[in-house]
Write a structure and sequence with these properties.
This protein is of the alpha/beta class. It has a four-stranded parallel sheet with strand order 2-1-3-4, sandwiched between helices. Helix 2 runs parallel beside helix 10, helix 3 packs antiparallel against helix 4 and helix 4 crosses helix 5. The termini are far apart.
């Protein structure tokens, strides 16, 4: 089918497609649960398994993030040479992800769908205030600029806005476990922001540093189902500044029609 045939066909499906670029399988599971909570609580939409598409780790932004964080703080500028390299990498990843989705799902991503660009920072933030320091915050700006440049390139190639998904970046410090930890009652008391991703943070959240084991024995699913729930969204927003823009966009809804 052509894009417009796929687009019209997709309108029959009320729920959006959520494609996720991630580091590891646990990241996908955490983000899937988190996004499902947002849609359930704010849009009264129950997302199903078929609404999610996992871009396996052969396609990720790990190298781009590592390239950025490995440089000295003097190079943490939006228009530095390293930032330009990172933006180009991200744009190629976005294009590959969109093409891969269309090929494997036989369905085009549209402006009613979401493409999530997720990566672990693998850096300790220490406290939420440090997120706004140049070394931590600039990567967020680089990713948003990369997305805007990608949209600009696609427009120049003749694409309409209906043919492109909402692309949302999210980088967590140090890893996706911090989102789960923020849903737990003892987040501030334990000060998870001081923990390395491995082994301390994974051990405290999943009671093991082995993610394959946590998935296999059901611990990861049990933890997500217990703590990552709609009632925890306000706590996540309060404790994790790196997810706030992501949440503001996904929780937006039109006022009811009179």
């Amino acid at each position: 089918m052509t894009f417009w045939q796929n687009y019209k066909s997709s309108l029959n499906n009320m729920n959006p497609q959520i494609a996720i670029i991630r580091d590891g399988p646990s990241d996908f599971l955490v983000l899937k649960k988190f996004i499902s909570c947002i849609f359930q609580h704010h849009h009264q939409i129950e997302l199903e398994e078929d609404n999610f598409f996992e871009l396996e780790n052969t396609l990720n932004i790990i190298n781009a993030l590592s390239k950025y964080f490995d440089k000295s703080t003097s190079e943490h500028a939006l228009f530095s040479n390293i930032a330009g390299d990172v933006r180009r990498q991200i744009q190629q990843i976005i294009l590959t992800a969109i093409l891969k989705f269309s090929k494997e799902k036989d369905l085009s991503l549209t402006n009613k769908d979401v493409l999530v660009l997720y990566g672990d920072a693998e850096k300790i933030l220490g406290s939420k205030e440090k997120y706004f320091e140049p070394w931590a915050y600039t990567i967020n700006s680089i990713m948003w600029l990369a997305i805007e440049e990608f949209y600009h390139k696609m427009v120049r190639q003749g694409y309409e806005y209906q043919q492109l998904p909402l692309i949302l970046p999210i980088v967590l410090y140090p890893s996706s476990e911090i989102l789960v930890a923020s849903c737990m009652d003892d987040f501030d008391k334990t000060n998870y922001r001081q923990f390395n991703a491995r082994p301390a943070l994974k051990q405290h959240v999943y009671e093991t540093e082995s993610i394959p084991l946590a998935i296999h024995n059901g611990t990861l699913a049990e933890v997500l189902n217990t703590f990552v729930v709609p009632e925890s969204l306000s706590k996540v927003y309060k404790d994790l500044p790196e997810v706030r823009k992501f949440m503001q966009i996904l929780t937006f809804s039109n006022p009811p029609q009179k």
